[in-house]
Amino acid sequence: MNRVFYFFFIVLVAKTSLLQAQKPNILWIYAEDTSPWMGCYGDKINANATPNIDSIAAAGVRFDRAYVPAPVCSATRSALIVGQSAIRFGAHQHRSSRTQETRLFIPQDYKLLPEILIENGYTTFNHGKADYNFIWDMTKTYNYKLKKRTDFSELVHKQPFFGQIQLRGGKNNTDYLKESVRVDPNKVSVPTDYPDNEIFRKIVAQHYDAIRVDDKIIGQILQALEQTGLHQNTIVVYFSDHGANNLPRHKQMLTEGGLHVLFMVMGPDKYVPKNSVRNDLVNMLDLSATTLSWAGVDVPNWYEGQNLFSKNFTPRAFVAAHKDRLDHTIDRVRTLRTEQFRYVKNYKTDRIFLQPQYRDSKPAIRNLHHLYETNKLSKIHQQIYFGERPAEELYNVYEDPAMVFNLVDNVEYQNVLEQHRALLNQWMASGDMGSAPESIASLKANGDGKKWGEGVNPEYEIYRVDSDGDGLSDRWETANNRDPSDGLLYFEFNCGGWQTEGWKSIDIFSNLAGSLGFLDFKLDSKKGTIYKEGLQIRETNQQKSIVIKMKSNASLKIFVANDYGDLGSAEYSGNSSFEEVLIPLNKNTSLSGSTKLSISFRGKKNDLVEIDYIKQF
Which stretches of the chain score pLDDT less than 70? Predict the structure, then answer.
């Protein structure tokens, strides 16, 4: 019996080893911050300049419409390694779980993709960036360390393997490139959602250069695979985590530029078709499911993707994505792309599109602000960067790939709008943890005194100190170049992360947040009131007036009041230009002790009021 048992044991081991040897190796070449500006995607600038990238597409399958689940690295990477959109399991906020007080864990029954592959006989490794927004065990996830990205010698004896090689993509240093290799800024086309000037031409040219740097590295990786003979049984995948890093409507925005990425696969005929192009809508979460399918592993029930090469593959009707906090910049946006349209839902309409962010000192952002401040920015660029944020956006991306013409108010597209609302609600019904506020510990960890910037969204005001009682915290005032100890009421509405500065209304239903630097609204009846709470105003003997710099074509009566009663009034005759309106305070009244200030405007229904600033005088 022992001999029989031993015989069957040997046969079982042999069969298992054979099956393991027959499984394919899978290599993800994972680029940071890279848009699909390669020759194989028909790009004229990089035609014949990305031969190694193009060779992958030519040998296998190029996906022309692949989209990531988020426009920032950590949320996308967290989603792909789990197989599910990050809003489902709480990893949606950028740079989450980075301190002891803010630790997050994936659900107990979930496993990371490499863990599943280890359990199925795979060697796993990750060379470079991980950036997951939750606590994870590296030793359980990766059981091998690649010495360098082109050293596969040991892997010959550790097959099958699943590995990730991280490339810097758009973050590549291109300063060392020879002039003969560099792209001439004067020969590039700037996408229409950016000003066509020297600064943006240089940014576009540099991104082309960065892709050329990656192409050379990819050539070295492919050569190393061939030299070891591993290419014969290795599936190579090349893709990116989101769009170009130095273009502000690519990285971090739920636009075509932010979400549309390169994606191509080559490998043995058994797993990957040859010389193919796919034009169906692809969610990059499909790569996670496809990877497990290549390895012969059942796809877990929490996975949202599907095997792209399955006989039962069902083309998607839409691909959805999310945007939440990015570094210190708090936001909540949801979007989906269908065959022809992109729909966007904005939940934070009290802040402009181009909020304060980690790139504020970069040439692109500084240039946009300069052009806006000097009134040299086109109207459409003013709107998409510094304009009032609508609750919804709808774009025909066939005709408008740069997403500059919002069709939400176009009556011809109302049915399309309603259909896309329903699709987004359907997608979010599966779970969206972004609806809950972040903990104070997490806010502090990301928004207080960080190298990428100081948080200026209203969410941060919950725990911060306001020592002078003007309703704006000391940190917020300092970050916005105001004096946190002056004790004066001064509201300038020039903080893109909090356009209202806390002013609200219960009888004005239009959004109070205007373009950067302004508060604006229409009266819904003959009277509309805005108010600011949370004040602790001290005695102000020398400040006996309220000044409002405003404009309106209508004649208005303006009344100021606090918690105790009326303080003063003034009449405004209407002007097409901004002017200061002085509202003297009644002699027998005082702002001292006020916790609420109200300003009422009396005129006619639909009168438009635009306010530049409100201050004590």
Answer: 1-21, 539-543
